[in-house]
Amino acid sequence: MEQEIATQAVGLGGATDFSLWKLFIRADFVVKAVILILIASSIFSWALIFDKVRLFRRIDQSTKSFEDKFWKSKSAEAFYKSLPNKSDDPLTIVFKSAMSEVIKTRSKSTAVQSARVERVLEVSVDNQLKNIEKNFTYLATIGSTAPFIGLFGTVWGIMNSFQSIAISRNTSLAIVAPGIAEALFATALGLLAAIPAVIAYNKFNSDSQRYLARVDNFSKRFLSII
Predict the structure, then answer these.
(1) Per-residue model confidence as pLDDT tens digits over 14-28
(2) Structurally, how many domains does the chain consist of?
(3) Is residue 14 in some structural domain?
(4) Does the model's pTM come out above 0.85?
(5) DSSP state of 74
(6) pLDDT band at 177 (very low <50, low <70, confident <90, very high)
């Protein structure tokens, strides 16, 4: 009798190990697939977050430097000629495209020149905004779908728990707890992937709109100058 109890205790020892690795190992194929998808989504989400943080930090500094130099320059054309051929700053790219159009349309009337430069500015600003907002949809998608993927894993895990109860005809925690723990682990991973993605998406979307307003303000002032 004592030997049987000891054997059962040893058998339950592995089932009652609720470390994250053990939860993953004990899970079936579907729950493992859900966990791997959520982990991959979380890693990709954080990679995008760090990339966008560096991007906004860089363009904020480069745009501030550009604006300081531009308003201190003697003329727009002289400043244009002093700029390097290649630049990663969105505002610098917008200015160069607009200034290039100004030089091309010198022989045109003021109205025609202004209209063409304004059109070039709109297209250039739109292109730069698309580059800044690139991959924003991935963050939004991860933020909106990850909880449901985790919920699917949870439902599947709970179904397995009920099947274990039906097969063993035993409702003890030793039988039910492992499956429920695996199920809740999937939900936790879903939230872990979704929450940072949603927060980052809202933050970056706000930053991009603020930067767009900054570029639009410069474009209007530049048009008034020419």
Answers:
(1) 455 556 566 666 667
(2) 1
(3) no
(4) no
(5) S
(6) low
